[in-house]
Amino acid sequence: MSVSQTKSLRSRNDLIFDILNYFVLSVIALIVLYPLYFVFIASISNPTTVLNGEMWIWPKGITMEGYMRIFKEDSIWRGYENTLLYTSVGTVINVTFTVLAGYALSRRDLYGRNTIMVYLLITMFFSGGLIPTYLVVKKLHLVNTMWALILPKAVSLFNVIIARSFFQDTIPNELLEQAKIDGCSDITFFARIVLPLSKAIIAVLALFYAVGYWNSFFDALIYLGDEKKYPLQLVLRNILVIQNELASQFVTDVESAEVQQRVASLLKYGVIVIASLPLLVVYPFIQRYFVKGVMIGSVKG
């Protein structure tokens, strides 16, 4: 077979592979994105068309009644403020502790680091449970404060392992030795050399922690008693629960039941959009750091 024939065959095989690859990835992307798109168009469509299955691709009977009802609630805006506060403060604390722990455990000159890792790994398989955790939080006088949502989960061991693997693969010991020859201390080396080289893993950790805080409502349900301190997810949950309770307790005639069901459907889809939109907006700006950090920190580890 000549060189030209080989190149032609290889090019043909590459073309077939690319076509199949794009097709499979397009199907996967459609499976992932369509539910998000459906929720959005359902939040602005006539609930009757949604419930009857008449709405698939385009919204029908466009209405903003659901969003108007949602944004009339002052608790929504207060929940946004609380969630932004909890997410920003908690993410900073989590990322700081995780990076410090991951870097320390990646250093070969850390005495007893294997023993420390074994001790930490045990906590991944055994925990005290909900009641002992609540008692500890109560004894520390953290109940009904934002610190009850942050301090008990200040460090995730899974993320520490990712950070440790990243530092082991990215920061060679020769770099530290050279820095020490130049008179660099451990703190200076970490602050001026390690951190600038760790933007990818810091972005990944920040995204992991921020998503966890943004979507969390169970901890707030347990530890917070003041409604003014509720995060957004708990506020939205309460709106849907109250809406369903009102439907079952106070609606007796058929017409009112249909109206109640219509409003409940709009609220259901609307709150999903409101809760998901901020993260969907932020993610594209840190996507390149996210991909790089996951590849280096997780796959290699």
Explain the layout of strands and helices.
Layout: H1 3-43, H2 47-51, H3 65-71, H4 74-106, H5 113-125, H6 130-139, H7 147-150, H8 157-170, H9 173-181, H10 186-194, H11 199-215, H12 218-223, H13 232-250, H14 254-299
Helix pairs in contact: 1-14, 3-14, 4-8, 4-11, 4-13, 8-14, 11-14, 13-14
Report what the structure shows.
The chain contains 14 helices and no strands. The chain is mainly α and 301 residues long. The longest helix is centred in the last third of the chain and has 46 residues, at 254-299. The chain is globular.
Short description:
It contains 14 helices and no strands. With 301 residues, it is mainly α.
Q: What do the pLDDT scores average to?
A: 79
Sheet with the most strands, sense and barrel status: none
Please provide the ordered H/E string of secondary-structure elements.
HHHHHHHHHHHHHH
Strand content: under 5%
- Total E-strand runs: 0
Instruction: Give unreliable regions as ranges.
Output: 246-255, 295-301
Which percent bin holds the helix content? over 70%
Instruction: For the record, give the distance between the C-alpha atoms at the N and C termini, rounded to a whole number.
Output: 43 Å
- SS-based class: mainly alpha
Label the overall shape. Answer: globular
Treating each run of at least 4 consecutive H or I residues as one helix, how many helices? 14
Please state the CA-atom Rg, rounded to the nearest Å.
Answer: 26 Å
